[in-house]
């Protein structure tokens, strides 16, 4: 998944410091996918091309997230915002932000401790 990001790509989750750069993203996502199973469907809700080199992509997501350590599930209905940039290697995610309230619980509460592990 990290290959989709620019070398200096940033993930921004609510209530957490930003995660910047492929090494940090790789470490975070490896831990995340070892601990959580995502069964989500993403729908593109809009694309705004700002220039020939820059665009915003807005998505929505629905499905389940299962914690593999305790077998609990949540059913998020999230929104995501991607800022993508054209780089030499093609279009890459420069910034990703997730907005994910679920009945007063944030999916990022499940994700943050895993992504932020050293």
Number of strands: 9
Question: What would CATH call the class?
Answer: Alpha Beta
CATH fold title: Nuclear Transport Factor 2, Chain: A
Number of domains: 1
| Helical run tally | 2
Fold and architecture overview:
Strands 1, 2, 3, 4, 5, 6 and 7 form a seven-stranded mixed beta sheet that branches. The protein has a two-stranded antiparallel sheet with strand order 8-9. With 118 residues, it is an alpha+beta fold. The mean pLDDT is 83. A hairpin with a 2-residue loop joins strand 8 (101-102) and strand 9. The radius of gyration is 14 Å and the shape is globular. 19% of the residues lie in helices and 58% in strands. The longest helix has 14 residues, at 22-35.
Keywords:
118 residues, 2 helices, two-stranded antiparallel sheet, Nuclear Transport Factor 2, Chain: A, globular, single chain, seven-stranded mixed sheet, alpha+beta
Task: Provide a brief overview of the structure.
With 118 residues, the protein is α+β, with helices and mostly antiparallel strands. 19% of the residues lie in helices and 58% in strands.
């Amino acid at each position: 998944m990290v290959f989709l990001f620019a070398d200096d790509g940033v993930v921004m989750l609510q209530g957490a410091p930003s995660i910047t750069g492929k090494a940090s993203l790789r470490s975070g996502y490896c831990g995340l996918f070892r601990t959580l199973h995502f069964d989500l469907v993403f729908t593109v809700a809009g694309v705004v091309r700002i220039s020939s080199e820059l665009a915003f992509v807005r998505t929505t997501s629905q499905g389940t997230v299962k914690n593999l350590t305790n077998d609990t599930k949540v059913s998020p209905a999230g929104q995501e915002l991607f800022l993508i940039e054209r780089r030499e290697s093609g279009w890459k995610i420069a910034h990703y932000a997730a907005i994910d309230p679920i009945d007063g619980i944030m999916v990022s509460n499940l994700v943050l401790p895993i992504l932020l592990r050293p």
